Amino acid sequence: MSRTLMTLVAGLAAGIATAGPDHAHDHKGDHKGEHTHEAHPEQSGEATLADFYADAERPELWIGSAAPELQLAHFPRGEAITSLEPGQTYVVEMWATWCGPCIAAFPHLAELQKKYEGKLNVIGVNIWEQAEGEERVELINDFVAEHTEMQYTVAIEEGTAMADTWMKPANRNGIPSAFIVDGEGRVAWMGHPMAMDEPLDEIISGEFDTEAAAVRVWNEQLASMALSDMRKAGSEGDFDRLGEIAGILINNTHTDNAAGLGETAMTILGVENAPEDHLRMAHTASKRAAGMTDWKSWQALYAYAWASHAIGDRAEAVKWQEKVIEMSPENYAGFMQQRLEMYEGEG
């Protein structure tokens, strides 16, 4: 699969989850004579990603782990917080001056600090700067003075201590990256700060299930690993492994996850010379994804049209690709039109 198509596939799949209601039922009257091939049905309810990746180990710092200590050397703004106090919730957010997405997240962090005043301490920790020592302190002081939107505690790590004891053991390789520490001193959540509103609210209100979150997020990690392994297996022509992983994802991992089904389908479809039975697996998965979104997600319909074309159902591919063009954003118009013309030109 080309890098451009891989990027498109990831973006399309990510949009499937929120594009329509999560109802797994068919759109009556629009589907006649469709294939109902089920991918490796013997795996359903049996093989799981946890079984397949039995040797995989969670990162050293994971959801439910005791939070590492704070190792902060300088506070350009806000209260100097040097330890995590019991009963208090903390957002420890890693950022750098050269990171555009970090800067974009500053106002949101300030909003959360204000919203949960007295219940939450937001600490923006500067890491991964090229400057060191006094030069780094001066750089961050000047930067923070310019960014008045940073209305929360801003700190500089001791040397590289926070990157070494928080980011590295958690296998976090990008910023901005936020860790929510609950009142018991445990890491309850970690991810992009723009995505933490819901878990933060549940953590502060005491409604968050940390153990369940640890399992759920680990399964998401395994699913991401599985997609990478599928691409690798496809590029190496190892279609048995490709089919085995796809079967687990379709029949077990993503039975109620439209986005996961769509991404699995498009990963199969992006493999050059994929066998016929694998293409039918992709068709099964994409049809389920479209049904879950009530046939109103253009991303899911795109996957279904592609899969229909792959198994030789030209009429179905053209029909649904036309709907994709009607529904998709303008910036996709050229690409989607090309796909339609391809489907129309191959009989």
Structural commentary:
There is one protein chain. The protein is α/β, with parallel strands linked by helices. It has 2 domains: 3-44 and 214-345, Serine Threonine Protein Phosphatase 5, Tetratricopeptide repeat (Alpha Horseshoe); 72-208, Glutaredoxin (3-Layer(aba) Sandwich). Helix content is 50%, strand content 10%. It is built from 13 helices and 6 strands. A 6-stranded mixed sheet has the order 1-4-3-2-5-6. Helix 7 (210-235) packs antiparallel against helix 8 (239-253), helix 7 (210-235) packs parallel to helix 9 and helix 10 packs antiparallel against helix 11. The longest helix has 26 residues, at 210-235.
Outline the secondary-structure elements.
Layout: H1 3-16, H2 49-52, E1 72-77, E2 89-95, H3 100-115, E3 120-126, H4 133-146, E4 153-157, H5 161-167, E5 177-181, E6 187-191, H6 197-205, H7 210-235, H8 239-253, H9 258-269, H10 276-292, H11 298-310, H12 314-327, H13 333-345
Parallel strand pairs: 2-3, 3-4
Antiparallel strand pairs: 1-4, 2-5, 5-6
Helix pairs in contact: 1-9, 1-11, 7-8, 7-9, 8-9, 9-10, 9-11, 10-11, 11-12, 12-13
